[in-house]
Amino acid sequence: MNMDTNQPLLKPIRLGNLDLPNRVVMAPLTRMRAANSGLVPTGVHAEYYAQRASVGLIVSEGVFVSPEAVGWADVPGLWSEAQVRGWSVVTDAVHRAGGRIAAQLWHTGSLGDPDFHGGKAPLSASAVNPEQQSVTADGRKDTVVPRSMERDQIRRTVADFGHAARNAIAAGFDGVQIQGGYHYLFNQFLNVRTNLRTDAYGGSTENRARFLFEVVETVVEAVGAQRTGIKTGPATSETGAFVSNEETLATFEYVIGRLNEFDLSHLLLMGAMADLSATPLAALAGDGMFRHFRDLYRGNIIASVDMDRARGNRLVEAGLVDMVAFGRPFIANPDLPARFSADAPLAEIDWPKVYGATAEGYTDYPSFQAVPA
Ligand SMILES: Cc1cc2nc3c(=O)[nH]c(=O)nc-3n(C[C@H](O)[C@H](O)[C@H](O)COP(=O)(O)O)c2cc1C
In degrees rounded to 5, what are phi and psi of residue 95? Predict the structure, then answer.
């Protein structure tokens, strides 16, 4: 079998303070395996991530920064000592297997459900139902009208991100990634449909972005820019309150342009997740997302969504992005870089077992053994 280790995806790169052996990233993947009252990661998490350690960088599943941030069942957190101890076992296992792992810091905002908050509505920028679904212990539920965050709740949430970032480093993570994308809390502030505030956190683009940048500054102060990455960008499902409008592109041009000031480890940029042809984002379809923001952002860009070996190699070769994240492919292919090296076929996902409490469908996908020619 031919081993093509010269392909752009398999070339080393320096990311922040890390030397990575290849440009393949494991995208953050929520897998709902922390089915315990403390939302603590377990030994099965350690085994799962260690199996995937040959990748340049693992980005962990979204990890909640505080009890208030919780909005998806059985997802681990990073605010308590027990969670830090649990994650230490995971990061040790990844490091022993030769890998590197960043913690994705998550707050679901209005995507949470009152079930997670003793019956109280979740927090968000404004009292606007995002018209999405929340994944609860009893299954998917329609979202509700959230509570608009008071100034002290904003201040506390900014501090929660700093605390979780410090906890991540204490737990042995190699860095953190702020989950600033999709429909979650930061995009609820950035989106003019879900942010109706009239204070310093609403109105102008700069005001809507204020909360995000306060968090970026706090996390950078806590763990250093070289260990801080961010996932942000305009890609959403184009449903409910998250339908792109005339403000969307300008908002993200402002956000991503301003991120240049921080010299972060990386920007994880999702490509289009929905048909954008009838939206003001039509030019961002396909590789358009990466072309557009490559011109604006000087740091390392990690591309995500619908990547395969050929597309990933092409994007890196063309200089449009620096690394490429794979989400769904990592579920069934723990050794994806080896499969890319050998151009081996990819295993298929057993979908009913993607979200679940057990090791089945989680740590039982076998490695591919490349046989040299
Ligand atoms: C099962 C599953 C769980 C996911 N969980 C997260 C998550 O916790 N945080 C996040 O930012 N994105 C999450 N995503 C989005 C992925 O990181 C990725 O952007 C998406 O799957 C598209 O990339 P792909 O085509 O390589 O799968 C998830 C996706 C899937 C399929």
Answer: -65, -40
| Mean pLDDT, the chain cut into blocks of 10 residues (373 residues total) | 81 96 98 97 98 98 98 98 98 98 98 98 98 97 98 98 98 98 98 98 98 98 98 97 97 98 98 96 97 98 98 98 98 97 95 93 87 43
- CB 327 near ligand 1, within 6 Å: yes
Joined tokens for residue 32: 């709902």
CA nearest neighbour of 255 among 237, 234, 225? 234
Of 184, 201, 362, 365, catalytic: 184
27 lines ligand 1 (CB under 6 A): yes
Spatial CA neighbour of 101 closest among 184, 169, 179: 169
Q: Of 232, 197, 196, which is closest to residue 212 (Cα–Cα)?
A: 232
DSSP bridge partners of 176: 103, 228
Torsion of CA 261, 315, 29, 234, to 10 degrees: 50
| pTM score over 0.70 | yes
CB 49 within 8 A of CB 101: yes
Overall CATH class of domain 14-326: alpha beta
CA–CA separation, 328 and 344 (whole Å): 16
Would residue 184 show up in a list of annotated catalytic residues for this protein?
yes
Task: Return the domain boundaries, the chain.
Answer: 14-326
